[in-house]
Design a protein that fits this description.
CATH topology: Amino acid/polyamine transporter I
Structural class: mainly alpha
Oligomer: single chain
Number of strands: 0
Distance between the termini: 54 Å
Helix content: over 70%
Shape: globular
Order of helices and strands: HHHHHHHHHHHHHHHH
Number of domains: 1
Length: 381
């Protein structure tokens, strides 16, 4: 528990210390005009309140990552606490803050455009292709994972069966509904769907973490292991060394370059540069805290790291099922239902912003306004 509490305190303190240092380093200017004032278009350049932008940014960059990855990464042992804390403070949050401020000062430009301005047109073309493709793949992952969670809850047969009969059609319908939502959220103005429902689901993400934190702090049945060494505690340590496997297992929650593709969405909605620390640095620190909590419950719920490794083997590494088991046992079936709903919602809403980011990248590549691109997509549909 002591290691966990120290790491939690360091993450919170970093927002008020290192975060302020970064503000001074980049020279935050409260009097500067932001993109939503200069380039307001009613689609992507729309001013939104800071609290909404924070919750949207949190959901954009978090989703399933700091939950699933943290639980699986906890199999390496308490060393995961160290990576989440130091990575979150000095890598993840710093990266998100700097890249976000750069985008804010470059008219909310997407990642490939920013890279091109500093590294040249050749690199920009590569980044356009890579980033757009990556966003589509990320959206596809966040399309399949919610469907899989729903299928597990409703005991729907897998789509791997030869004939899509019976309840398998229900799973296809779920996939179709999610895809239609993706299209709507991608094309409609940012304040119509994303600006209204994302803050709700962002709050749900925080509520889930706080519920688990309450259990960790006040239920003596769950003991969080302490960091006494950097020993690799995973079941197959030879094939899964800490470097680099821990860092790739727990990416969201410590560092993720994917975040730089999401920050321009909010850079186009910010009303003042002063909001940068809370929106960019603060959202990543919050994600690290969420990852820290889920890593802790992953170890504590199954009686230690060895028990967690056994559970991962038992459930075939299906983090979604493990989250369901943890939530049901610790919070009860009713609250567990809300947790699973929140997990599904977080996955879905993270997926649609990946698609929206791809649209921004394509629009910047084609040199057309977002309104024009939306009309062309409408025609294709």
């Amino acid at each position: 528990m002591i290691t966990f509490l120290i790491c939690l305190a360091l993450l919170i303190a970093a927002y008020f210390t290192y975060g302020r240092y970064l503000e001074r380093l980049v020279g935050i200017d409260p009097s500067a005009t932001t993109p939503c004032d200069r380039l307001y278009d009613g689609v992507d350049y729309v001013p939104l309140p800071r609290w909404r932008i924070f919750l949207i940014q949190l959901l954009n960059i978090a989703g399933l990552g700091p939950i699933f990855g943290a639980v699986l990464g906890a199999a390496y042992g308490p060393v995961a606490f160290l990576w989440i804390t130091l990575g979150g403070i000095f890598m993840g949050a710093m990266h998100d803050f700097i890249s976000g401020v750069i985008s804010l000062r470059q008219d909310g430009a997407s990642l490939p455009e920013l890279v091109g301005r500093y590294l040249g047109p050749g690199v920009k073309i590569v980044m356009r292709l890579f980033s757009a493709g990556l966003m589509i793949l990320v959206g596809a992952v966040f399309l399949s994972q919610p469907a899989s969670l729903i299928a597990n809850r409703l005991d729907i047969p897998s789509l791997d069966v030869p004939a899509f009969g019976g309840f398998s059609w229900l799973l296809l319908i779920v996939l179709g509904v999610i895809l239609l939502y993706y299209i709507a959220a991608t094309l409609l103005p940012v304040d119509k769907i994303i600006g209204r429902i994302y803050p709700i689901f962002g709050f749900a993400l925080l509520f889930m973490a706080l519920g688990i934190l309450f259990v960790l702090l006040f239920d003596r049945d769950y003991v969080i292991p302490e960091l006494t060494s950097l020993r690799n505690c995973i079941a197959d340590a030879r094939n899964f060394p800490i470097v680099p496997m821990l860092f790739t297992t727990i990416a969201c929650g410590a560092i993720s370059g994917f975040h730089a593709t999401q920050s321009p969405l909010m850079a186009r909605c910010m009303r003042n540069e002063r909001e940068s620390r809370s929106v960019f640095y603060g959202a990543m620190i919050s994600e690290s805290i969420i990852a820290l909590i889920w890593a802790a419950i992953g170890m504590a719920f199954w009686g230690g790291v060895e028990g967690l490794n056994a559970a991962i083997a038992q459930y075939g590494g299906q983090a979604g099922v493990m989250i369901d088991v943890i939530a049901t046992k610790t919070l009860g079936p009713v609250l567990a239902g809300f947790v699973i709903f929140g997990v599904v919602a977080c996955a879905v809403t993270s997926g649609d912003t990946a698609f929206r980011s791809a649209r921004l990248i394509v629009a910047d590549f084609m040199g057309v306004e977002q309104r024009t691109l939306r009309k062309r997509i409408y025609i294709l549909l």
